[in-house]
């Protein structure tokens, strides 16, 4: 196998549009840049990182850590913040953006738009005759669509997905391979990656002298518009009320969301974090990787919980916490320094 | 999508029995309560949480944190401990229970019993002709049942489950969608949620100068009666002896159980915890979320391991540990307080 | 269910060769041992652990912790290091090895070799007519093989595996049940356990005033020769360059590998660890269970990261770190001791 050369947009896996003249790209990005005629008409075939981009590819710099790569890039154009524009080599056009990473997202989508639904339903899919399937829905091989399921227009359901009885899915959702959904209502543009589990029973039981008595889990899971959920993440349905993931929130791989969790709009939950039952997150909360939150607590708006943090009580809006048990960032790093100093003395 | 109103027992997803007269409910719960005639005959249609229950629904209070909701509830009856009975509003009947949460489990099951097996085998399931399938077994679409598999009476096998060669499953088990089982023997009433992986090779290899040499994993997984295992949890088979999960134990989502782990009866393992190979847990051990145990250690009866705890050595029966490395609860919180005090001084 | 007796190599699940004369076993192990004639011709039927092995079974001792079992074993032969040879009971032949665990791997494989491909393709598998399937490939029930997929000679593809468009798999790979692979190139002898997710989008988006803008993930996943990946582990494809897992590396269950991670040869990543995007590991790095690495850092050759460690910066080659934030082992345990002492005083 000779595959050591890294590759952006390998045509075996990615569709590509273009080439596009640079002036068209700049217009697409909404940037106000005066290109001279020569540059404006030059054609570009795609995007690539600084170290591998060629003269007809566009690159970007977002992280100061990689500034040495900028100086040596062969890219024909580079999206940069104003502060770095003078570091762009002469043979390359500096495309100055207030938010280079957002511009990068935009230009990469321009060359490589997400494939739309083919509208085809594979004959091996098992679809209940009571299911209501919208227009232009793609359903791949061996997917299972249960009784009274509703699937909105333009959805893509990948191979082996299982959509259980009564589930409702809004328009233009993408449901990955091997996803399981039960007891749930999904808004529009929801994206579930492979192996996501939505709507199974929460971890609820009463302890009795004879063992454990299961408590029926009678709520649902609500995934609002634009929610995205990473591979093998698990979201349990509510016990009495619903588990709710607010519009636009992004959840990474292998995350656990317990029953009755209420998450606000545009929250971020990074991989392997866990949120215990009945905890609430207001809008714009960030939970970093491997953090854990106990149940029945409240995380205020725009609060940020650090990686591996163990949160045992409410977190105020706008605050940054880290450590286990959670404390303000400053206090945590002061503790680390203090203990190091004391250890050396002892 | 208009789904902000939370919903208990949405008929799209849950079957419901009843209505039932309150006297019948009280009898079902085994409570000794003298109801006056008017209350005894009043019909109830279901259960709901305090904040949304209506006059013909039953609710409960178990967590002191929610006592304000009790005072304002519209529920027709509320299950409470004796200590809170005087906080139940006048229009609501107080159903006094020694264990309100257990009574809640019982009443919720009464209105919403788990659906029994339909006894139907979907024609798309792929079933070996050498498999032995019991009476009244339900097998859903596209499940795969391997050679010489035995499935007991009354089992429910969901869509896309894969039961590999030789696996034996006792009566009345529920195997979720996308579950994989190999090299395993299951008792009765075992419940596996979607995406559970049972019986794959443990992480075993010898380090050699040329790389790693795989050690064949020649044991099995034994899941005793009544075990329940959460979504996407992985339980590796033993290397030489068996991996054993004791009767009645409850394991949450995304938990890792290594090869040769021996778990006693009625243990609890909360989400994202990990137990390394050859570690043993006696009966009634609790492992909280995201805790990790190294291999080859012994956890005594009724010990409790706190969230995110890192356990590097044996834990005595009945003790409570937390922290990484693990220490008694008291010591952990004293350490936290000491370090905070010293940091402020420095 | 009567299954308390633990069992090595249960014939319901494992194929077995033999019996073999001890001289043949010793030759297979490459050990230089002078057996007397009686021992040399004695037949052995298999392997078993010290506590359950019988007179015609071979066992081993690798961990000093189990030396008491050695003294009492009924095994007919025991693989041991020279230092323990005099602890082997008289009725048992001591098979002295410089690396008993490697010898154990070898003898267990001798009696229980991995089953080769049957070369059969199940009629229920859904295989694109543009896929290129090698010689002697086994494809189980309901697997899905996409357009232009290439599968090398001797591969085994288990039930319900989904191999998406364009994926290339080298010779003699084993792909477990319910695995999903997209945007990926696999070398030879790669082993993926059930529920592994390879090649889905990384967690990439730009934060905008209106919410999150998805950044197309245009790289691939490269799994080099001999890589093994545990159940329900997730490996995201690169954003612009590739995510690479180096030859011979072993990854355990429920691990998260972010986009653009570059892992060298023969690395070990234990269960529930997480490696964030764009971090690089040189050869022979070990990451213990539940450790977490932030993105964009570099871990030097042969470095070892302890369980639950939180790594926020580069780690030097050959060093051992633990704690959150990560520090040298010695410093960590000195800190623990210091804090305990100070707490007792206060």
TrEMBL record, chains A, B, C:
Residue span(s) of domain UDP-3-O-[3-hydroxymyristoyl] glucosamine N-acyltransferase non-repeat region: 46-110
Family label: Belongs to the transferase hexapeptide repeat family. LpxD subfamily.
Catalytic residue positions: 259
An example Gene Ontology CC term for this record: membrane
Function: Catalyzes the N-acylation of UDP-3-O-acylglucosamine using 3-hydroxyacyl-ACP as the acyl donor. Is involved in the biosynthesis of lipid A, a phosphorylated glycolipid that anchors the lipopolysaccharide to the outer membrane of the cell.
Assembly description: Homotrimer.
InterPro entries found in the cross-reference section: GMPPB_C (IPR056729), LpxD (IPR007691), Trimer_LpxA-like_sf (IPR011004), UDP_GlcNAc_AcTrfase_non-rep (IPR020573)
Domain Mannose-1-phosphate guanyltransferase C-terminal: 121-198
Pathway field: Bacterial outer membrane biogenesis; LPS lipid A biosynthesis
Protein name: UDP-3-O-acylglucosamine N-acyltransferase
Reaction(s) catalysed by this chain's protein: a UDP-3-O-[(3R)-3-hydroxyacyl]-alpha-D-glucosamine + a (3R)-hydroxyacyl-[ACP] = a UDP-2-N,3-O-bis[(3R)-3-hydroxyacyl]-alpha-D-glucosamine + holo-[ACP] + H(+)
GO process terms (BP): lipid A biosynthetic process
Highest taxon listed in the record's lineage: Bacteria
GO MF terms, alphabetically ordered: N-acyltransferase activity; UDP-3-O-[(3R)-3-hydroxyacyl]-glucosamine N-acyltransferase activity
HAMAP family assigned: LpxD
Keywords: Acyltransferase, Lipid A biosynthesis, Lipid biosynthesis, Lipid metabolism, Repeat, Transferase
EC identifiers of the protein: 2.3.1.191
